[in-house]
Amino acid sequence: MSYDYEKTHQMILDSALKTFKDIGFRNASIRNICRDAGVTNGAFYAHFESKDDLFAALVSEKLSVFNETYQEMSDINIQSVDDIIRMFDMSYSSIETLIHYVYSERDVFTLILKSSDGTSYEHFISDLINEECKNTMIFLESAKKFMKRPENISERIIRMGASMVINSMLDAFLEGVSEEDNIRETKIASDFCIAGYKELLGL
User: Fold this and answer.
1) Which long-range contacts (CB under 8 A, 24 or more apart) does 101-104 make?
2) pLDDT for 21-64, tens place per residue?
3) Number of DSSP helices (H) and strands (E) in the chain, helices first
4) Long-range contacts for 178-184 (Cβ within 8 Å, ≥24 apart)?
């Protein structure tokens, strides 16, 4: 009984992954997912409460790991100018870590980025940009006493930089750019932001 349950569960997940990737969440139906999985609609509801629940089952765990990793890398402890420089330098390893994870979970992030319209995950990119802006503002506030010109950094400038780096990284992933090239190109985009921040901050 346990084996049959697990087998059916996986068959539904496999069918949903293919269907969502092919036609997106909005256009997918439980009936078609069940048909392609070779199970009944009744069997579906023994495993998932809804189509939304099914989509979440495919992406939520991996996305949680991504978010936790991002937050761990965003911890801020500024005690000197050297710490400010160190935080800028750490952004390169952070970029590499996040890009590597996205590529290692290709199916999950393809779903989130291309097929999540109509789900609670459809604003993933804007949410990530907002989080990056918030963390950058916390970083700048913590570093103010060590800066020569902290007043020059507006929220609009921060959002422009965050949008450029995050969108370039995720667009390259969707366009099929290799992981190695994506890391290299995103680091170049980050270089522009870091150089601008350092100039504005008087570092």
Assistant:
1) 101/65, 101/66, 101/69, 102/66, 102/169, 102/170, 102/173, 103/173, 103/179, 103/182
2) 999 999 999 999 999 999 999 999 999 999 999 999 999 999 99
3) 9, 0
4) 179/99, 179/100, 179/103, 182/99, 182/103, 183/95, 183/96, 183/99, 183/100
- Assess contact for 119 and 52: CB atoms under 8 A: yes
Report how far residue 138's alpha carbon sits from residue 133's, in angstroms, rounded to the nearest whole number: 9
DSSP conformational letter for 118 = T
| Total Cβ atoms within 10 A of residue 161 | 22
Higher per-residue pLDDT: 70 or 80: 70
Q: Are 19 and 80 in contact (CB under 8 A)?
A: no
| Angle at alpha carbon of residue 96, lines to 102 and 107, rounded to 5° | 10
Look up residue 150 and give its amino acid.
Answer: P
Query: pLDDT of 94-109, one tens digit each?
Result: 999 999 999 999 999 9
Which pLDDT value is given to residue 2?
A: 47
AA identity, residue 43: A
Identify whether the C-beta of residue 153 lies closer than 8 Å to the C-beta of residue 197: yes
Rounded to an integer, what distance in angstroms lies between the CA atom of residue 44 and that of residue 55?
A: 13
Structure tokens at 9: 């569960």
pTM passes above 0.85: yes
